[in-house]
Please model this.
Amino acid sequence: MIVRRENKFKTNNLLDLYRPCLPDEIVGQETSKRIIKNGLEKNSLRHTLLFTGPSGCGKTTAARIVALGLNCENSSGPTSNPCLECKSCKEILYDSSADFMEVNVGKERGKDAVDHLVKNLNLSSLRLRYKVLIFDEAHQLTVAARDLLLKPIEDGFSHVYYIFCTNQPEKLRNADKSGGTPFINRCSVLAFNPIPKKKMNELLENICVFEGVDYKLDILNTIAEESSGVPRQAINWLDQIIIEGSWSKEALSDIV
Model:
């Protein structure tokens, strides 16, 4: 089930307008979606999660959905149906909370950057119910930074959740400096895979209907095929063909 929403920057980019905010809005990923949904409903979600899969398949989006579900003020506890309207939900959606942090590891991969983030994790949350740290491109964490994270992960602070996202999980399989358990074995791993062509076709067609676009099915089929099951790529191409307007195979060949 897709939903069209205004985004924090009020852009008309289709990726932003149709970004899922609830577990049920995630396209495909049925097993991981059930784990997230049931974990939130039963308050049984593990505090250290690793989301793996190709770029553009929804790992970081799913991590934000977890943060919303954990912290919605209009629920007495974690929920799979956050309101998206309360102050906590808005702070996460607008990335304006000190308790919710997205770390681009590719830019902040060193020990000093991680040290700055984790040194106060033992302290209570400032305002949200839970602190949530999302590490995008987690495979780029330096060995020193990874080792620095081990203690807070093992201490298991009840008010902190760690979500690591990576398309190269094999780089997290090495043992730590002491020869102990590999970093990846300390996480609950959820896989995010390319979505089937049928579901991709349905997604693209639904977006066209929402947008009031007079689309051509053969063009949507080609986009779905060429995107190799990656929603971000398919929606980007759809956005371009809608703007171009001709819905011709010639135009699509210049875009894809």
Remarks:
- The mean pLDDT is 91.
- DSSP finds ten helices and five strands in the chain.
- The beta strands are 48-52, 100-104, 131-136, 160-166, 188-191.
